[in-house]
Amino acid sequence: MTIFLCTIALFSDLIIAYKSDNLDNELESRSFTNLAKRQEFTGDISFTNVENGKLGECEIPSTNNDLVCALSTEKFDKTLCGKKIKITRVTKSVTVTIVDRCEDCKLDDLTLTSAAFNQLGDPAEGVIKCTWDFLK
Q: Which residue among 17, 44, 73, 76 is buried most deeply as judged by most CB within 10 Å?
């Protein structure tokens, strides 16, 4: 009888551990970062002047000549620092690196350096609508 109860307890522990691992995997696959990497976004793209060598949230030095961006506060996560984003506007595109967070941006908006923005549009436009997605 004792062996039978120990066997049942062992199988119960294995089932609970299996379900726990599956739940952890499910939650990880639904995390914001993973969902963001599988989806295309549309937002307003603006540009800003960056002080030479400025360190943003990611602590990656950047200048106006670098192809870098800032993500909205809602999307920003330190694990995204250094990751690449491809931004497309009709037939033009640019790949930028995430180096900062944008406090004034709405959820799917980005702020670029002037060098990156110039590859998509004329600075006189100020703000342009583009699609973008995370690169793997």
A: 76
Which backbone phi and psi does 100 adopt, to 5 degrees?
-160, 175
Rounded-to-integer distance, Cα 129 and Cα 43, Å: 6
Integer Cα distance of 30 and 13 in angstroms: 26
In words, the CATH class of domain 40-134 is mainly beta
**Cα–Cα dist 82/68, whole Å:** 9
Element (H, E) at 115: helix 114-118
- Mapped onto helix, strand or coil, the DSSP state of residue 64 is coil
Distance CA 110, CA 47 (A): 8
Token readout for 69 is 């961006």
Whether 118 and 46 have beta carbons less than 8 Å apart is answered as: no
Over residues 34-76, the pLDDT tens digits come to 545 458 999 999 999 888 777 899 999 999 999 999 999 999 9
Q: Is the pTM for the entire model greater than 0.85? A: no
Q: How confident is the model at residue 133 (pLDDT cuts 50, 70, 90)?
A: very high
For residue 19, with 0-12 CB atoms within 10 Å meaning exposed, 13-18 middle and 19 or more buried, which class applies? exposed
